[in-house]
Amino acid sequence: MSRETGGRRAPTLEDVAARAGVSRATASRVVNEDLRVRPAAREAVLDAVAELGYRPNRAARSLVTREAGSIAVVVPEAEDRVFRDPFFASLLVSITQALADSTVQVLLAMGRPGDGCRKIEKYLRGGGTDGAIVVSHHQDEEIWRALRETRLPAVHVGRPQAGGAGLPYVDMDNEAGGALAAEHLISRGRRRIGTIAGPQDMAPGADRLSGWRRAMRAAGLADDLVEIADFSAESGGERMRRLLRREKGLDAVFVASDLMAVAAIHEIQAAGLQVPEQIAVVGFDDSQAASLSRPSLTTVRNPVDSLATTAVDMLLRLMQGEEAKSVVLDTQLVRRASTDFSVLK
Amino acid sequence: MSRETGGRRAPTLEDVAARAGVSRATASRVVNEDLRVRPAAREAVLDAVAELGYRPNRAARSLVTREAGSIAVVVPEAEDRVFRDPFFASLLVSITQALADSTVQVLLAMGRPGDGCRKIEKYLRGGGTDGAIVVSHHQDEEIWRALRETRLPAVHVGRPQAGGAGLPYVDMDNEAGGALAAEHLISRGRRRIGTIAGPQDMAPGADRLSGWRRAMRAAGLADDLVEIADFSAESGGERMRRLLRREKGLDAVFVASDLMAVAAIHEIQAAGLQVPEQIAVVGFDDSQAASLSRPSLTTVRNPVDSLATTAVDMLLRLMQGEEAKSVVLDTQLVRRASTDFSVLK
DNA sequence: TTGAAAGCGCTAACAA
DNA sequence: TTGTTAGCGCTTTCAA
Q1: In order of start, what are the domains of chain A with their CATH numbers?
Q2: Ranges for the HTH lacI-type domain (chains A, B) (predicted)?
């Protein structure tokens, strides 16, 4: 695993200093953009750096500064399903982009189901990073304990279930999103509205459902047409069939994820019914699947990008010793053809 | 950015040694599983480690071993489109999972368009990693130069355009995949077959097209119905409209990505034609979009998982000083409803 | 089998 | 403004 496969030794600060005719300390100052260096010396060092192709050794620097220069995106106990989720991919990308300006590197720490998160825990405790962004919808006591004990700055994306060791979090307003969906359907004249919810032990699952409930009751409508699914396309389709069987008069459904919503649309069509003519459908996430679907899917926007930039922002603040308060982001409804006759596709 | 926010100093090897009543060297040997340590001493050290909650400091270790304990997944000059691509997300996940057993950490290094890849280059040169997996369909001279000069073990995912500094690569057989698609359509009795290709300055774009061409000619069919798109859904739909305008007798299309293929299907349907009855469609990638589409999409499987595990395998081998030869993986056709009446969905 | 000691490359007091 | 010096926490000779 040696990096020095027969090559010349990489130039050190010592080499640079020697070549520039200054001390190592001065060379270090130039490299770290310390102001109190005579212009001439500065020039000399910069030249030497360029000529030698010098790059500071991160390990050496980390050792003395006690900063790793990286943050970890932690996904504990991750199932395959989580990863293939476009939400997760987008989040990861947005986080990385948000850090592109800084010198901070992004480390991807994914646990495997079963294995617990021993590897991640070890890494966090070993001082491998300066901070962590935890992405999970489960309780991850071990990770939380490690974060607490190491006092590592950390933020949670998505409201953690049981306190999350007091970590600040960024989340979208799932409850308001669910209400938004219901209100939209009601405003379109629908009355017999069902919902396919996510797992109730996950915050997005529970919150989207309760938002829907609140709006339904506020409008004096029944909130009995509830089916619980698991966010997978299969489960979404299956629950849609149940809903169709349960209620002949059904004229709309709010489905807690786009993926499930697309599957639901297929089932409605397979039953010989039209979307949105007979049954209107609202999804959740505004993922690619929503615009690719036919009819295109009205959905609640999941502000992934803002989620990521806010999380990064909070983490950087925390890393500078400042306070960070949890943030809940607004959601918006994206109107498309699955609830609206006037939209073409 | 200090990690030691008022907390107790993390225990060092020195502390462990003191507590166990041995020297630092012995403690180090135990931690690194060196065999020549007396069982009693071993026990004492292990106990001390447990009691103190000792974790080795990575920076200190790296400094002396000259190993970073991490590999970088490098995505230079990445546009937004690349990231949202499910292929990339799956690849990243598979790479991380493939490394879950090892102690190696995964570092995500994404460049931004325009900015070049100065940050990445700097990092690679700074000894921040022990190896790199480069994911790109462009020429990235700077990165290649950095990799060459640092002699950093590296592999390319996807055949690099212009040599890629002699990096070994893993790729799927895009050419064979294109041929597979054409042959399948021909075997289903289609004769007037068009194609919507990807950009010709990208290997997957060019190779899938040439495979299609080869199979068409081999069957004595005309290969004139070619439209070049850019892998985006919009471009796919637009090129499909052109194809429909160009050739009334069109009875099949091979589209170089699922995303474009789904858009193409929508256009065909919008023109009042049936898939697969009038026009059969084959996509490429076997992404989620393919199974979500109605009719479900026959497509060429992109073996993302094998791509990732093979790349990781090659890299680890390289890091141990062994040789690694480029690998081209086979592809398979996944039959679904867009080319086959007997498939239900 | 063990310990003493040297140093990996860097930053940061402290003095000059 | 500069240089000297002392470590950061660890691995690894080299002797014992």
Answers
A1: 1-54 (1.10.260.40), 174-302 (3.40.50.2300)
A2: 11-65
